[in-house]
From TrEMBL:
Residues 1-22 form the signal peptide. Residues 40-74 form a coiled coil. It comes from Granulicella arctica. The keyword Signal applies. Keywords: Coiled coil, Signal. This is Uncharacterized protein.
């Protein structure tokens, strides 16, 4: 509808609205008298319809306005709600961010707490393990102490208990200790009988005493066994052999490697496993307590000093001296010692030399980590006797007696090295003048000149060893050794002895009887009484003037450790076979030899 039309319609409506009330009033007045029926004209109808349309449109307009107002209100509400929502969203975002930060912080705190808890668990677990280990260690030390503690001294017991046996194809009237230089020649009845003996006498008792005084580490050590015979000892009933001093010494050591030891100990000549340290002696693994031919050793009183510098050890030892003497056709124009004096606490049945000075031994040892242990050294010995030049006169006289001193000595070298993880090889040598006493066979150190002055004898000793360790329980070993004493003889030009050979192993000695068995001594009692030791029927009788040239021995054996535990100790068995040969110097009827086959067995229990 156009603006003009709307304006026309509005005018008609206005006019109609003015005229209608007047007519109505007239009609009403007139209708009070009579009813007049009005017929609506077309114009009025159009006007009425237009009015109705206008009203309808107005109503629609009002409705639209109302709807618009409602929408505006809703939009305002929605805008407010949106604004509120945005604010809430911002608040929620801030809250979320704060919560996220809190959550992250909480997560970090939880992670830290978990880490701390894990650390605490680990710490507690370690602490529990430490407590358990400490408890176990304390219980172990209480129930199974490694040593006994007395004030500031630690005491470690040392002991083993042995049951051993020996079989020899030629009897020597000996326990398990073999007198190598006394294996009988064929003239002795003992060369035609064997012997078998059981023994427990090598069982050992001892202890190590240690005290750490700060500047010095102090130590004392002793060992004792029963390989000694008293005047009442025998094997008839109680087998009451005496306890003997084996090793006993005191020691002081500094942190710089300087050590002083004094007492009875292994000679410095003896090979060691580490430096020149006591208690590391490298002994053959045999059952025989006299060890093996070719092995150089002694146990005697000594004073030893040593200094370690890295793998090198230098040592000096002053040791008790004794002389082993042997001679044929010697004159009675000298002496070098005497039988022991009971009041001086020496054995009255043993001979002792009158020593002028101790034996002096120097040794250098070098230890390597992978290539073994090596030793070189030397020893100096002093031999003195008193001789009587006028003893050979027609009228013997002690006037003009003098003391004579000779100096001897030798050189030693030892090497022991691994060829594989399971095998070790050892080489031992000692040679010089007057060194026979330090060999296992104890060949003589010196003989004598016709005028009564001493003459040291050249001697050599050597030992080759192979020791296999196929398992932790089993050792297999083999040894080959020999000892030699040189013939040392002088032609006498003195008095009635002129032309006589004097000394060690003269060729003029009769050896014809050394291979011919002789009759035993005639019993002195018809009742079969033993009588004195060595009397019939304990005297197979043998007479042979041959002097030993060399003693040789070859050995093979094994050691099997049946059980070994640091708490309960070790049980082991040994089996050893040795072949021994004694060779004499040639005399008027040749050079006799003596041999022996020996089998040793041993069972030992070592305390832990």
């Amino acid at each position: 509808m156009t603006k003009q039309l709307m304006a026309a319609v509005a005018m008609v409506l206005i006019a109609g609205s003015v005229s209608v009330p007047a007519q109505t009033t007239t009609k009403t007045s007139k209708t009070q008298k009579r009813v007049v029926k009005h017929v609506e004209s077309a114009t009025e109808r159009e006007i009425r319809e237009l009015r109705e349309q206008m009203q309808s449109q107005q109503a629609q307009i009002n409705a639209l306005k109302s709807q618009n107002a409602e929408k505006d209100a809703k939009l305002a509400t929605a805008a407010a709600d949106a604004q509120s929502a945005n604010a809430a969203a911002a608040t929620a975002t801030a809250t979320a961010q704060s919560v996220s930060s809190s959550v992250q912080a909480n997560a970090d705190a939880v992670s830290t707490l978990n880490s701390t808890v894990n650390d605490l668990k680990a710490s507690n677990s370690g602490l529990a393990q430490t407590i358990s280990d400490t408890k176990k260690d304390l219980t172990e030390k209480i129930e199974s102490p490694l040593a006994i503690h007395y004030k500031g001294v630690t005491i470690t017991p040392v002991a083993f208990f042995a049951a051993e046996s020996v079989y020899r194809s030629r009897a020597t009237a000996s326990d398990i200790a073999t007198p190598f230089n006394s294996t009988p020649f064929m003239n002795s009845g003992q060369a035609h009988v064997s012997e078998f003996n059981f023994s427990g006498r090598q069982s050992r008792l001892g202890g190590l005493f240690e005290g750490n005084a700060g500047t010095f580490k102090l130590a004392g050590y002793f060992e004792a066994d029963f390989l000694s015979a008293g005047v009442t000892s025998n094997s008839n009933q109680s087998n009451s052999y005496t306890l003997r001093q084996r090793v006993i010494y005191g020691q002081a050591a500094t942190q710089s490697g300087f050590t002083v030891s004094g007492g009875q100990m292994w000679s410095l000549v003896t090979e060691t496993k580490k430096g020149t340290d006591n208690r590391t002696e490298n002994l053959p693994m045999t059952v025989d307590p006299n060890y093996h031919v070719g092995f150089s050793w002694a146990r005697q009183p000594a004073i030893r000093v040593q200094q370690k510098i890295g793998g090198l050890t230098a040592a000096l030892s002053l040791e008790e001296a004794q002389i082993i003497y042997s001679a044929t056709n010697a004159n009675a124009n000298f002496f070098l010692g005497n039988a022991g004096t009971g009041g001086g606490l020496y054995n009255a049945t043993a001979n002792y030399s009158d020593n002028i000075a101790p034996d002096i031994i120097v040794k250098f040892a070098y230890d390597t980590k992978h290539y073994g242990h090596y030793e070189v050294g030397g020893l100096t010995r002093f031999f003195r006797d008193r001789y009587y030049p006028n003893q050979t006169l027609a009228t013997p006289s002690a006037s003009g007696a003098q003391n004579d001193t000779k100096v001897g000595g030798g050189f030693l070298a030892n090497a022991r090295f691994p060829v594989t993880h399971f095998a070790d090889i050892g080489i031992h040598t000692l040679g010089g003048t007057g060194v026979g006493r330090y060999g296992t066979s104890t060949l003589p150190d010196t003989t004598v000149h016709p005028d009564g002055t001493l003459a040291p004898i050249k001697a050599y000793q050597g030992l080759f060893s192979v020791e296999l360790h196929p398992t932790k329980k089993l050792d297999i070993f083999g040894y080959a050794g020999g000892e030699y004493a040189q013939r040392t003889v002088y032609l006498s030009t003195v008095g009635t002895d002129a032309g006589k050979l004097v000394g060690y192993a003269p060729v003029s000695v009769a050896t014809s009887g050394c291979n011919t068995e002789t009759l035993p001594s005639v019993p002195t009692s018809g009742l079969g009484s033993i009588g004195t030791a060595g009397g019939a029927p304990y005297d197979p009788s043998a007479s042979c003037g041959a002097a030993t040239r060399a003693v040789l021995e070859g050995t093979a054996g094994f050691t099997y450790r049946v059980y070994s535990n640091p708490r309960f100790g070790r049980l082991q068995y040994q089996g050893v076979y040795s072949y021994l040969k004694r060779e004499a110097w040639t005399g008027l009827s040749g050079a006799p030899n003596a041999t022996n086959n020996m089998v040793f067995t041993g069972m030992r229990y070592y305390i832990p």
